[in-house]
Queue: 4 jobs
Job 1
Amino acid sequence: MNPQRPPYQPPHRPPQRKLTREEWMRRQEYLRRKKQQQLHRRLAILTFAALFVILTVVLISVALHRSGQQTSLDTNETTLSPQTDPENTGTPVQTTAPQTTAPPTISDKITICIDPGHGYDDPGATTEYLGDYTEKDITLSIGLKLRDLLLARGYSVVMTHDTNDIPDDAPVGEQYLFGLAKRTAYANQTDAVFYLSIHGDTFEDSSVQGSRVYFQSITGEDNTAITRLAQNFVDALTLALPDAPKAPLLKEMPDDSAYYVLRNVTMPAVLVEIGFASNPTDAANMLDDAWQQKIAEALADGIDRGFAK
């Protein structure tokens, strides 16, 4: 042991005073409140976390629901109501799968996409003047005639559908088999340079009649080419139907007010309303095979005016 260094002495602690009963009770009350505060803080944190998770799940669910609704609207979107616009076309056709009606596309051929309005379980316009027939029967008949004419003239042709017979493997309970979104997506996947949709019209006033040619114009862009292309069909229909009570009309549809098929294909597109099934004269013509052939030839001529070399 070093004689120069005193031995270690523990620090002196004054003796603790014994708490009185009242002081002890106050201390216990303090400790109890402190524990409660800690518990409340933990509960508040857990509650906030739970609410955050619930809110996140709700927001995701709402977003998915709206996305589903938009997809449904895109798939089943209809054209203008006959109560508000005499240029109504009804709900466009839907099928099971795209069908090509021409041999494989040759590089020097021009491919045209023909879209007969309605089809399969979607009849389109049904009026007393059409009897047992509906719009889908007429548009398909004209579409097939047009296909044959274009093939004979050297074009390559694809059709959104070339039959109205529902396939045996069609999903049970599914109303539409090839809707607007699928139809336009199919057209965009082909090498078609032009998209022609054929429809019949209806209106509450049976005196309204005649054919109409619709195209989409984009605000702020040069729409000269598509306007001229649509006008070609008006001119061809006028020549094909010189005795028509009403001359064909050109109808411009600006921006997003245009029909779905016009604004969702990537190639130039025109929608032709061949007549009004709600008008007795137009309906009688629409049922006449010779008149259908004239319309098909006029549509082929309109395509020639825009694309023939």
Note: Helices lie at 21-76, 135-152, 180-189, 224-240, 260-263, 280-286, 289-307.
Job 2
Amino acid sequence: MEEKILKILEEHCEEALEYDGDSMMEDGVIDSFAVYNIAGDLEEEFDIEIASKSVTAESFRNKEAIIALVKEFYDRGE
């Protein structure tokens, strides 16, 4: 699962894979457009629906947070 998530991130922003900070959006690594595109690709890849209230800068602060978000929705079966 993590490999697929990282591949999607790489497709949208290779820099996200190397980022080790706490806010990719604040640090200019990704923007809101990229976040929504990544979320859409993750939903499609894992057949989940990420609640729009969960598509936030906090949930997409780094690759670890994104992996945790996907696992949370996947485990819920959403």
Note: The mean pLDDT is 95.
Job 3
Amino acid sequence: MKPLLHLAFAFAVAGALSACGGKTPPAPVSPPETGSNGEAGSAAPLPSRNFLNVSRFPMNRLISGGVAKDGIPALTDPDFVRAGSAYATYLLDEDLVLGVYLDGVAKAYPHNIGWHHEIVNDVASDRALVVTLCPLTGTGMVFDGQGEGNGRLELGVSGLLFNNNLVMYDRRFEDTLYPQMTHIGIRGYGTEQELTLMPVVETTWGNWKRIHPGTLIVSSGSTGMYRPERYSTYPYTGYREPASAPMFPLFPEPDDNPIVHDYPPKEIVLGVRFGNVAKAYPFSQMGDDRSVINDRVADQNVLVVYDAAARMALPFRRDLGNLTLNFEKVPSTDRRFDFLMRDLETGTTWNLLGQALAGELRGNQLYQIPAHNAFWFAWATFWQDTAVYRP
């Protein structure tokens, strides 16, 4: 057997969960199987090699993360401050944030907040959204919170995990569960309903401030739960090391999923998915500097922009009207960005947010594909048929 699951979990379980829950929890336990046809509790890998088919979802693979429902307290409508505030000093420039920009409003949701709360229910520019971070799978994802006829969507932390991934519950219908990475309801009123994934910019705090100098950031004093200095401390000591193991066992086991050994477990990848078709862009494969990648995933023409220093990888559609554009990297004339792009078809210059700055297509905006980063082991386990970018 390869060493992925032979590495010790104990140090991480005790330290990380006690940091989130306040006390060292009991060992995780599996809830009972559900369903009378044997499919919901099936222990066999799914034929589609992903977990999108709710009728065959392996409910018996949900486990307790060691805390009760809401034992990790989600935030709802926290206070925000400007970057220069004393309540923003918990964050270093190299720390990661999930950045959202809507109708002229820029907001940053730091990983440091997500380590301790995992979910932020918020409103940006009058639009409800839900910002989620699972520290165990490295997945920061933003969902549309507008709701459809049932009021604003608000999610909470269920206390359950699936393949190490956060399982969220819907506060409107508390029996509804959503694994974060598939974001399809697997139980209750919202069964088979899919949350709407929104684009996000995951990057360093220093880079986000450079791109959006007027950004707001979650205040360390807004939660009323922890002292501000707590948000400067990573509670999962050693867990982000590339070769370190996942905290809990995987389904399917690594020996039944050979691709999980292709990269170190905690290698960061940008994951792009259209339905059942998934592709991973490992940061290590995109170079140690800057890359502009013209690609095709499923039937979509895709552009991936990668800035290693900013720890940022963003996917866009390369189609603009009837044009399919191909891009190359060019030196930057904008101090907010380390480099710019130029399309070969019209010679237009674009920034790394997909905005056309100069040339024939000036003023246009490329569509940013809703996607997210993840640890490799998580992406490869959820999407076992994933393609992988290799230059």
Note: The helical segments are 10-21, 111-117, 205-211, 376-382.
Job 4
Amino acid sequence: MNQYLKKYIELQKQFHQTEGTPESVRALYAFKEELEGIEDRQAKEVLVDVYDLLDFKKSAYDLLSEIGDRSDRKTLKRLGVLKEYAGKWGNHYALPKPKTPEEKQKDQERRSQLGLPIFRYHPDPLETGAFEKSEEGVVCDCCGKTTRIYYQGPIFSEKDIDYLCPECIASGEAAENFDGEFQDTYSVDDGVYDPAKLDELIHRTPGYCGWQEAYWRAHCGDYCAYLGHVGVRELRALGVLKEVLDDPMWNDQQKDVIQASVNGGHIQCYLFQCLHCGKHLVWMDID
């Protein structure tokens, strides 16, 4: 057994025994980055396993296609499985690397450098996919200006809208000009009694797409920050699964469903965090 395989087996064991804690996922990512800088064939063979475990399906398929022995039946079978996953998912549903406090600070600095407005209830719309980038730029349907970062997410309006710039959403001009809302007022948690907070959520906050109609969680008398699509693996990797399950909204059967969720699968969870106490909550739906 070579040194790379030995280390992988140790990290894989740690990952499964801890059910994918932040520390075990970060350790796998560190090993992945180490292997990516090594040209040794044995290292590359183990790198395929690391990619596969972290659900970098396209990376695993591409690398195995490059180095695999196609005369070996096991290799051909694995290539077939990975090809199917790579075609459906690419690397889109790879298990995210849990961020350290320092990395989170750098993310805040990056958003500041981009000049994006601050959305309290949707703090990183680029990370969640609510905002997209265009090198050529697109024309905002509200202000008529060219923007390289734009929104194509849900907006409840009778008018046809292709692109909106972040500034028109944050100012409320987009909602006013198109008589629209970014969130259905009936698809929000109870317990928020300040109408200004509801106004901010539905008129000046980019929405998110779900399998069914999006729903917004609330806690501590305020709406929560939306953090993105997740499944149970992501919840474990972020270290918040236990916290999410400690939610009176869900009965035991629903908690079992959350623990069966797969990001991008038939059961999808959407992660929120309270702006006041920091508690994590989810909403879930089924396709």
Note: Residues 70 and 76 are 6 Å apart (CA to CA).
